[in-house]
């Protein structure tokens, strides 16, 4: 052991955890991870129209978020087209082509159903 209190492999000189301690640490870590995910879904539900106060259905929040993002993309495309017709420069507003194509191809009714020909 070196004077810094570590072994040759760099690990601190301390006793190994028991199986029960390791299991408790894992359980605690998993619980913290779930709490972070729940809090993120709650925040997302707060900003997705129509989702505030609708419980904790993660699938419903995701579906509503996908629908809203798609709606916003399509609205932006409409605005850009109107600006182009008016002769305005829209280069700085354009979205990546693949994003627009994905939004156009997506089924609005069930946004979480995988689409044919692509991994979702």
Largest sheet: none
Total strand segments: 0
Low-confidence stretches: none
Global outline:
elongated
Provide the gyration radius in Å.
Answer: 24 Å
Q: Tell me the number of structural domains.
A: 1
- Give the termini separation: 51 Å
Q: What fraction of residues sit in β-strands?
A: under 5%
The count of helical stretches stands at 3
Mean pLDDT: 84
Please provide a brief summary of the model:
By secondary structure, the protein is mainly α. The protein is 55% helix and 0% strand. Keywords: DNA-binding, Nucleus, Transcription, Transcription regulation.
Can you put this structure into words, describing what you see?
This protein is mainly α. The protein has one domain (19-105). The chain is 55% helix and 0% strand. It contains three helices and no strands. The chain has helices at residues 19-47, 58-85, 97-105. It is elongated, with a radius of gyration of 24 Å. The mean pLDDT is 84.
């Amino acid at each position: 052991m070196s004077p810094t209190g570590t072994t040759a492999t760099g690990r601190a000189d301390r006793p190994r955890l028991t199986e029960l301690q390791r299991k408790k640490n894992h359980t605690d870590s998993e619980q913290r991870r779930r709490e972070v995910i729940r809090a993120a879904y709650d925040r997302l539900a707060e900003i997705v129209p129509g989702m505030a106060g609708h419980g904790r259905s993660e699938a419903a929040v995701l579906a509503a978020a996908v629908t809203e993002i798609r709606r916003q993309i399509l609205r932006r495309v409409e605005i850009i087209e109107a600006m182009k017709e008016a002769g305005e420069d829209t280069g700085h507003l354009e979205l990546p082509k693949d994003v627009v194509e994905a939004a156009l191809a997506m089924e609005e009714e069930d946004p979480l159903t995988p689409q044919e020909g692509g991994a979702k």
